[in-house]
Amino acid sequence: MSTGVRTIVLWCPDWPVLAACREHGIDPALPVALTEKGIVHSCSPAARRDGVTRGLRLREAQYRSTALAVLEYDAALDHRAFEPVVKGVEAIVPGVQVLRPGALAMRARGPVRYYGGEDAAARALLEAAAGLGVAGARVGIADGPFAAEQAARAAGAARAAGAAGAAGATGAPGAVFAVPPGESAGFLAPLPVSLVTDARTTTLLHRLGVRSLGEFAALPDDDVRRRFGAAGAFAHDRAAGRERSRVAPRTPPPDFEALQHFEPPLDRIDQLAFAFRVRAEEFIERMRAVRLVCTGIRVELDDERGGHSSRSWLHPHWFTPADVVDRVRWQLQGSDTADAGLESAIVRLRIVPERVDSTGNHEEGLWGGGRDERVHHGLTRVQSMLGHEGVVTAAIGGGRMLADRQVLVPWGDRAPERVAAEAPWPGSLPALAPASVFRERLPVALVDAEAASVAVDARGAISAPPASFAVGGRHPAAVRAWAGPWPVVERWWDAERARRVHRFQVVDHDGCAWLLVRDGEGWWAEARYD
Amino acid sequence: MTAPRAATDGAIAPDPAPAARLERVEELQARIRGMQAARLDTRAVPTHPALASVLPGGALREGAIVQVEGSITLLMAALAGPSRSGRWVAVAGIPEFGVEAAARFGVDLERLVLVPDPGRQWLTVAAALADVIPVVAVRPAGRLAPAEASRFAARLRQRGALLLVDGDWPGSDARLELERSDWTGLGHGHGHLAEREVVVRVTGRGEVGRGARRRLRLPAGDLGFAAVDETGAAAASAPGIVHRPDFAARAS
Fold it and tell me: Quick check: A483 and B194 CB within 8 A?
């Protein structure tokens, strides 16, 4: 009987939780759960002690563990955070396959010969993992990646149970579990059959009375293939400990990210932008050398006080070194424009390419770029003067108040999901739209013939017809025509954001038309038809 | 080359009375100015027909500087023509520019760029925009020296861009302002704003130097713009209420 290739698996328990905790700055010793679509995806050991398990509904999990911190599961973050671990392990053992974030497989032959024994190799791996900040990693060694992973999982259980019931534990302290060569089938036999088959097949096998891997492996090979097809045969091989799949080592991807430490820390944006310029050029040049362009980057900043800021930036075409420096500057500036000091000095700056593309797809035409490309370059120049939000494009969104309906999107950003502008929006203005929409409403005065401010009562009736009108604190002039009140009532169920106003149209003495709003505080000009 | 010849032709013509001669000189000077304003190979920018009836030369021209004062709707009318024909337009320094109105009046939002707050850098921003965008509207945030203005005008001519200015600009080619505005559709406590008839006063260099007036529907009932079928003289003779642009109110 052929057996699988001797394989080592390094397993980091609860990796998704660890990665998320690091990103959000939470102590992983606290009860933490990651959810996906309202179902617990993974949880920390503390949460598990409280009774939280995978597949639990969020409400039930919070009921069981009242101090539970809940985070959204992010697969991309998982991979991203695992990348340094993979690199660190690759530095001591070449030819590593990432089974999934948190689990690495490698062929045992090389490291065992190099380190002089399975145990020594396993300890070297654990040391490397601990050096990378992964606490509690485990190593399993067996015939084939599947058996080795089960061995790694068993390592913790063996620690708890004092290595009971395991065939030939090597006696290493807890974190390592090696199944002797050829004994993988025996090691796997008591494990449940659901480890190798999908839910439907598992149910079927249970009905057939097959519950453990040993029982499944005992079925005749040909019968399993006839009944369950290729997938069944594959599972059968795994259960029998003669897995044919080998470790498929990954080719380490070329490393494009740019990292710079600042010593002493820099607290001025212009200094920082200047210091980073050369790095940014190298960053783009390295990619260009392998005919790649970058269309999305992630900028990560660490400051002196331990603060961390991370943001993705997209580019409508591709990043040039100057664009990269601009994105760094904008991220430092935040929303307000200040070319002076930062709150805290920056010690570390890291740029990671998030989207790369072949230069072939972005080659300029033979006669230079199109018109729109020129427009883009010009607007980028203006943006580098005024900041990212300085240049905007506009779209019409949904809403009742005019200012809500204008959606301004910074140049180069993707437009947000639009609220349907075509929805009825009862209370919004019909056909004619005012040409000037004030960003901040102007205080105005609308008074009746007795010079008393016009009021609107709860039933929507006005106290007296308006007679004169003044903007700001100026002298009131006669009102030529007016109409209203048109009520706008929004979100009455939400005390914070509820709005209950009355709109009026007024033509003033000069023949200029205004859209006025009466709220609880007084009269305002929302817009002008000029 | 044509301008001096026209002047010479005028000088040769017989002209006895001194008063009449003075008039003739003035007329000829106006003609020279007009020809200089319409620089030799300036090309017309697609203009909304209603506005074309107002403008000297019947169209907006590349490299020109046109003051459009006191009415954002008039500015939108000027932007709508080029925007409809597929050009990019930019608006700088006008934070209250109503996007929805612009879209309804025919400005294509896909090719509209806004720079709401250029601040003190407004001139640099306008220049950078004019380099790449053929129609730029700007509201000056400060006074402009004539030397700067002429440098800017040279740059515009070189790029073939049209500048619309909401405010003062020394040496602009034409100036449009609203002189009178009459809304219809709104009564006392009923109705809603439907249509407006305005009188646009045009001043500028050349033949229109003395200030012509045209009546327009801005906007008309169907959200378009239209010229009123009447000569400018009739409108000008009517004692209108002067609508002054409300600069103080803009300080928002």
Answer: no
Cα–Cα dist A97/A87, whole Å: 11
B57 shares its domain with B151? yes
In a domain, B94, yes or no: yes
Residues B85, B155, single domain; the answer is yes
A459 lies in the same domain as A416: no
Helix axes B18-37, B2-12, angle to 10 degrees: 170
For B180, the closest of A375, A405, A511 (CB atoms) is A511
- Written in H, E and C, the secondary structure of A412-443 is CCCCCCCCCCCCCCCCCCCCCCCCEEEEEEEE
- In this model, does residue A402 exceed pLDDT 80? yes
Residues of A in Cβ contact (< 8 Å) with B196: 513, 529
pLDDT digits (tens, 9 = 90+) for B120-177: 889 999 999 998 899 999 999 988 888 999 999 998 988 889 999 999 888 888 888 8
Cβ of B241 and A510 within 8 Å?
yes
> Residue A483 and residue B180: Cβ atoms within 8 Å?
no
Query: What does the alpha-carbon distance between residue A399 and residue A396 come to, in Å, rounded to a whole number?
Result: 9
Show the domain range for B101. Answer: 44-173
Closest chain B residue to A397 measured between Cα atoms? B100
Q: Which residue, B173, B204, B234, sits at the end of a domain?
A: B173
A402 contacts on B by Cβ (under 8 Å): 98, 100
Q: Is B109 on the interface with A (CB under 8 A)?
A: yes
The helix/strand/coil state of A526 is strand
Number of structural domains in chain A: 5
Assign residue A201 the CATH number of its domain. Answer: 1.10.150.20
B246 touches chain A (CB under 8 A): yes
Among candidate residues B173, B190, B220, the one where a domain is terminated? B173
Span A351-392, pLDDT tens digits: 888 888 887 777 666 655 555 777 888 888 888 888 888 899
State pTM to two decimals. Answer: 0.61
Residue A251 within a domain:
no
8 Å CB contact between A365 and B87: no
> Does residue B35 belong to any structural domain of this protein?
no
Q: Are A199 and A342 found together in one domain?
A: no
ipTM of the complex: 0.77
B249 vs A382, A430, A472: nearest CB: A472
Quote the tokens at residue B65. 């500087």
Task: Kindly list the residues from chain A whose CB atom is less than 8 angstroms away from the CB atom of residue B116.
Answer: 392, 408, 439
Give the one of B98, B119, B182 whose C-beta lies nearest to A527's C-beta: B98
